Amino acid sequence: MSEVEEGDVSPKESAQVRGAAAARGGENREAAAAEAVGEAGGEEAAAAEAVDEAGGEEAAAESELEKAQAEAAENYDRYLRAAAELDNFRKRTLKMRSETREETVRDLLLQVAPLLDNMRRALSQETEDAAAVKQGVELIVNQFQSILKGYGLEEIEARGEPFDPNLHEAMMEVADSEHPPGTVLEEMEKGYMLRDKVVLPARVVVSKAGEAQPQDGEGEED
């Protein structure tokens, strides 16, 4: 179509053209406004979604915190109960030990008391018969040893045995050529063991190497 010169357009047509252009401009502005409104609405929706997500995370964190606090309180309560049970057990154990010790001492005293009576009777008798006195003392000693054995107390064998620092306490050494060095020659005090545990070591005299004995013919004059 050929171009229309400006002078050939009538005022009416010119007004129509301007009206159409204005209408198109209005439509464009409305579309732009609608687009801006849509974008603003999208941003608002995104912001609302972000707020909802943040609120959900905060609620989840609070729930986890409450759960952890509840578990901590439960664990602390268990600890208190366990500590109380342990303390009660310790007290019961101490009480049982004390009662057992008292019963043991009471039982021992009841068995030793008759020995004291026997000793008093032996001392009250006037006699010059040494054999009878010795026999009475031996009887009392045997009774006492029997009582001690009943409680697990045993004498440590020492005389003639090799010296053992776990069982014996050497009080002195004596030169002796008849026994190997380190042999127990004499018991100064008895030692005792209680159920395989040394409660009192035996105090002993131990042999050591004696002076060299002269050889046959040594020292004889030619």
How would you describe the overall organization of this protein?
Strands 1-4-5 form a three-stranded antiparallel sheet. The protein starts with 10 loop residues before the first helix and ends in a 13-residue tail after the last strand. The protein is α+β, with helices and mostly antiparallel strands. Among the domains are: about 15-90; about 155-210, Nucleotide Exchange Factor Grpe, Chain A, domain 2 (Roll). It is built from two helices and six strands; from the N terminus they run H-H-E-E-E-E-E-E. A hairpin with a 2-residue loop joins strand 4 and strand 5.
Concise synopsis of the structure shown:
This protein is α+β, with helices and mostly antiparallel strands.
Distance between the amino and carboxyl termini:
174 Å
Question: What's the overall average pLDDT, rounded?
Answer: 78
The geometry reads as rod-shaped
Q: Structural class, judged by helices and strands? A: alpha+beta
Fraction in helix: 55-70%
Helix-strand layout with pairing:
Blueprint: H1 11-124, H2 130-150, E1 153-155, E2 168-176, E3 184-189, E4 192-194, E5 197-200, E6 202-209
Parallel strand pairs: 2-6
Antiparallel strand pairs: 1-4, 3-6, 4-5
Helix pairs in contact: 1-2
Descriptive tags:
222 residues, alpha+beta, Nucleotide Exchange Factor Grpe, Chain A, domain 2, three-stranded antiparallel β-sheet, 15% strand, rod-shaped, disordered N terminus
